[in-house]
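EI: anyone free to look at a 856-residue chain?
SC: sure, send it
EI:
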Amino acid sequence: MATAPAEKALPTLVLVGHGMVGQRFLEAAAERGLTETHRVVVLCEEPRPAYDRVHLTSYFSGTTPEELSMTDGEFIDKHGIELYVGDPAVTVDRATRTVHARSGLEVTYDTLVLATGSYPFVPPVPGKDATGCFVYRTIEDLYAIEEYAKNNATVGAVVGGGLLGLEAAGALQGLGLTTHIVEFAPRLMPVQVDDGGGAALLKTITGMGLSVHTGVGTQEIVTDPDRGGAVRGMKLSDGSELAADLVVFSAGVRPRDQLARDMGLLVGERGGITVDEQCRTSDPAVFAIGECALAADGRVYGLVAPGYEMALTAADTIAQADAAFTGADLSTKLKLLGVDVASFGDAHGAAEGCLDVVYSDSRSGTYKKLVIGSEGELLGGILVGDAEAYGTLRALTGSVPPIAPEQLVLPAGAGAPAQLGPDALPADAVICSCHNVTKGEICAHTTLPEVKKCTKAGTGCGSCVKLIGQLLPKSGDDGLCGCFKHTRQELYEIVRVKRITSFAQLLDEHGREQARGGEGCEICKPAVGSVIASLAPSIGADGYVLDGEQAALQDTNDHFLANLQKNGSYSVVPRIPGGEITPEKLIVIGEVARDFGLYTKITGGQRIDLFGARVEQLPMIWARLVDAGFESGHAYGKSLRTVKSCVGQTWCRYGVQDSVRMAIDLELRYRGLRAPHKLKSAVSGCARECAEAQSKDFGVIATANGWNLYVGGNGGMTPRHADLLAQDLSDAELIRLIDRFLMFYIRTADRLERTAAWLERIDGGLDHVRDVVVHDSLGICDELEALMRAHVAHYRDEWSETINDPERLARFVSFVNAPDTPDPTVRFVPERDQIKPELPLVPLTSLTSLEGLAAR
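SC: here you go
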């Protein structure tokens, strides 16, 4: 029997459980000096220390367990914490105040904190333990699901349509499984959204290819005797049977209170360790926090924010400070399967006399509901599809909004005013619900890193980061950076008018006094490099991004004319205009991928991407591609990526124009055009919109009379439908307007500003842009067209020029002092007959492991 060593004659504080709430307790204990006045021992059941369970699903999109980690050896060492991973507490003797761990370790405590969390609820249905049945709670669960899905499953089913259920469904779909969601309630996410929100969510999710079964329960897991009793389906309560060979149970969680029960602590009738407002259990020496605790208000909180508040309360109480946990904000904002979903306050309108204000657009899958009290105060709300206003609305809860409630839910362009700014919020408005940080506390700081360090705001779920940025003071001017007091737009005009061809000249003549003669910074160098490149033909500069001084201005991707990947390798992306490619060119791509051992993928932008090239291989790869007629696809640059297209009238019976020809013409015209941000485009041959033109920076849709031009669309984190700029255009009219639009955007946009954000920010919005681009209200259209003509006339393929210049090729080495040595850290492992990056594990060397314990 082992006993944990006691190095100091200090009272011992034992924490059982090391999840997110347990880690927050340790941080709070350290902040309050408890790690100096106590010996702190932590018993962690999982084989790794605390990690971010909120973002668990990001594992399936490439986030590593190490990146999810919430602590490190430095924190553990600094505060002298004894952390035992993979060694849970199994019994506690309250009479002797001794905790017994699974390994045989015994620790005598003065204060015990239980943070044992919760466990997944698995309905008691026949077959629930069959091979192929999983829960969705830990990283080990994800490992098991991923491994089983590789060789044993093609169809997956998730039992539960709540938060974790939808995340689990997205994970199964990402693993390539046909996926079903089974939810007993009549709608998805029944706790967070109402019927209207559930309908909007259902439409969007089914549109992604998932099958949803609501209002039915799982009666039995059907197994296959010929496969050793593995899952082959599910019987549902409506009498139907669903074929599936992998089942994930995500039907809610229950408090992990068995240890407390065995100790003889008081627990609630429906579970949860009973605690008072100081988070003390029925034993004054024992505290319980997080999902295992039944709070004094009679609730078990299943969100991390209340758990954090309980952790702070317990730490304060142990440190003999006044504190009380009397309840918590249950607001949530998540992105589930790419859909923004948020609820806050009295989302379901339980208050007497309250009224609803609802906006619903079933076409776009948008649903917004605000609950308004009898005195006009905002009580709560539900947002599905568009949760941009979540931070402001949540902070306004309990007060009367400064504008009419109906204006708060209308979309831009439909009568809504400008987005409510942070000035509308009172100082006591809670901005970060995870850490209960107010606007006043945030405004006491000047930078986001400072806010995160001092208040922890923005370090939880992350939904408040954008609003925090709006609250922080500006730098005192609108300059691009500390090197220039001018904006990017002003620098563009200076470069254009004065025909400045070098960054050094611009910095010496127009930089801030303290920056002149210097080298610039990581903000201004690539921004100015882009400006000079976009104006190069007109100002007499060499537009090649790797010539002379220009090379020093580029970021990592432009520096090597390729996108850096997560393991240090690079991608190769040849341009395939309009997605049209000959068999001969397809063969060349296949041969290159085979000969260099590259991972090959057809992308959503109608291109073929090749991944896994080492930096010294890039010139050899591109030499073969260029020889076959390919050129750079500019996937690395802030420039045009692709112009996607459907097959148009040439093949499709619905097509009314030749969309492929137009897409190729546009892509070849605007290739290599340097801009403040990347540009995407598409051409659809009819109103059925197969090329998704309305989600692009500029999109074209064919009509019987010509082309409609849409601008300012965007996918990504903040989707935006493009706006109609002009309609029924001829080919010449279309190209002329796109020329003007792109050059006006490049001329006036901020650094790293997509066209969608630019269109919403620029004074006058779409109407102003239309006046300038279509009606030439500023009299600059001739100049804009001339700039574009110069770009088209002087375009040169960057890779064609690079592979024929030995001086330029000299940069493509992993080590300057050993040019023939490949980077040994770039390694791969096989997967699905191709390769994927081998990512090294980073061990936490400061942890006290079971092996180390045994060695004692």
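EI: The radius of gyration is 30 Å.
SC: 👍
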